[in-house]
Request: fold
Amino acid sequence: MDRLQAMNVFTKVVETSSFSRAAGVLDLPRASVTVIIQQLEAHLRVRLLQRTTRRLNLTPDGAAYYERCVRILADIEETESSLENSGKAPRGKLRVDMPGALGRMTVMPRIHEFHTRYPGIDLMLGFGDRPVDLIEEGVDCVIRIGTLQDSRLVARRIGVYQGVTVASPDYLKRCGVPESVEDLERHVAVNYFWGRTGRIMDWTFEVDGRPVKVKVKGQIAVNDADAYVEGGLEGIGIIQAARFMALPHLRSGRLVEILSQWKPLPMPISVIYPHNRHLSPTVRVFVDWVADLFSECELLSGQGDLKVHRSPTLLASVDDSNRLDAATNAAAPVT
Reply:
């Protein structure tokens, strides 16, 4: 038995959760994959996988062995790559996936710099918020917002996502200015839903040092960040948008920050990649480059502050308008 091949086959079975998919990735007959795993378990004298008709599960011994295999295979890959690429610039294809708005506004305006520095790397850039199975779909790394849930992956934090709660002046004149988180019960939102599940995204606030989730009613929900901001601009409802997307409209006055005392909870922005690819030269140079890119952006590095105030003059005029409307309605005869 070739133990190195057996380790490679075993990790692919774990990462794809399937003998058949692992066979496809490795270009081996499925029967060969089955035999190799059986031989490996016989050699180790332990059961590595629990097989059922629906899924595969790692045994405790299998989980421990998988972690060791990943490190050993990564060390071998690093050693071979260092010899093969000694004195050479990284070359090859690199497939990266990232949120659409983040990619369009932050990465794409500077991507020519990466291409100039690494002309031997052919980039395939995907834009979207849907969950991506890096192993099964052959994606080398992804940029994602939020915490990492998959233990098969590695996350390197490169920035901070900061939200801001905003509405258009037109909406605030019609519906009033919420003065507390509780006031949102009487307001309308443009909601954001996750395309894969259809679940509406909760809003989050930090209230008295603790996180609070809030659901705001709304008749329109979208699953695109640009459309989400556009809904806020058109006065359809309040939105809790990415600060880097809202800032130009805050500066122009088309959006106004509300509830500024209670900020949305910040979330990490990370580059995520599989354990067994974290030493790939192409992945490494892209991760280093995009980390430097985000560190230079105050809105995403977590170092800057929002240089826009609540526009008290505008909000005062909105409040005056609402008080006038309320007084007029109160004086109107009951019919």
